[in-house]
Amino acid sequence: FDLVRGKVFAEVSGKDEAGNIGKADAGIPVTRVRWVFDYGSSFHFRAAPSVGRTGNIYVASSESLNNETGFVAAVTSEGVKLWRNDLGSVRASMPVGEFDGGERVFVAVEQPGTCTIARIIVADGGSLGLSGPGTGSCEGALALSETQATGEQGPVETLYAVLNNGASSQVQVFRPEGKSGSRSTQIDINEGLNYPGAVVTSGFQAHFVGSLGNFSSYALSSEGIPMTERFVQPVGLASTGAALTDSTFVMGGSAGPGVGAVFGARVTDGGTEWRTSNIVNQASSPVVAADGVVFAGTNVGLARVAPAAPVAPFVEATFGEKVMASPVLVSGQQLYSAGMTGKLGLWTRNLTPVWVSPVGAAFEASPNMDCARDGGAIVPGRPPTLYLLDKGGKLYSVVSDLALDTSAAWPRYQRDPLNRGTTTADLTEFACP
Predict the structure, then answer these.
(1) What is the pLDDT of residue 254?
(2) Which of 13, 27, 58, 271 is the 20 to 30 A CA-CA neighbour of 390?
(3) Cα–Cα dist 63/125, whole Å
């Protein structure tokens, strides 16, 4: 069915005992939308929804038109409310980790002039702080990896965050179960990380492009502390998000009104490997296919980039839709887009539309998707689900014929459904049989 909502037309014919033939036809309304959870049109959602291994969906609001407190909330894969915690404004997307046999969500909570990094125990929605309020803001997506410091018995969840405070900003690291003395550390830096930028990680290393347009990389020591600077290289773009492969940091960004680009830089020394010529206004957070081809949203549609030094050629599909959200690479060599007029689109990798259909209000937060689950276990044979948050305060569950492309290097915003932003995650656990 090549729409989100529409009609399937059917014709019925019959014959009575006298042999008279009658016919009738009708349109039967059908939809891909399984359910909609409405948080209220006054709330603004910027952070991408996170999906846990349980199938639960975690969302966060950044602010309210009525000055209501922002919140973090959870619903089941059937759209049933689990809990809501009115912690404060959240712009940074939230990675999902593990805790005591269950799940926890790491969240950067903003109050006026301060930011607190907290973890929410999913079983009851209770909050447990990892840091006290720090002066500044925390806008960029958090990243969650696993590291094993010297003397530790196994890998430990390691959270990376950036606290924005101008020339007094910090990269903060939290290892809640790390050995004594290695559970938190930070390094002072002279630029923050603005929304909608993101931290991405490959274990002991964390990378991002800051508010001053520098590609920055930092590393933990094998002891879990301290953190040291690897390099800071200017790129001249404001980050809209990033992807990471084994050797290349890929970012979409804006260089000012009417000028945007996608670039790739070496993770060894920060040197630029390739960059597109100007893309209309800006490029969204990129995704990377298995063959290295890069896709991103633009102010007028979608772009496909074939990395090549020094100037990477790109194709731009212009269809009058501003796409701020990161696309989602799916099976069948296709991808989804969610745009700022509330339309969901399915495209071939050549950027030919399969279908484009209205769903809700503007989509600023990047979509997520997951397999069908029953109590956390993936259910074979049932279609996957796409999750979208719109600016009208609604969370949509949309049935998909296609699954997340787990063969891709970086198939969606922050890579996996848990929003961890790390190359160390094994995507095959999210493959839908």
Answers:
(1) 79
(2) 27
(3) 20
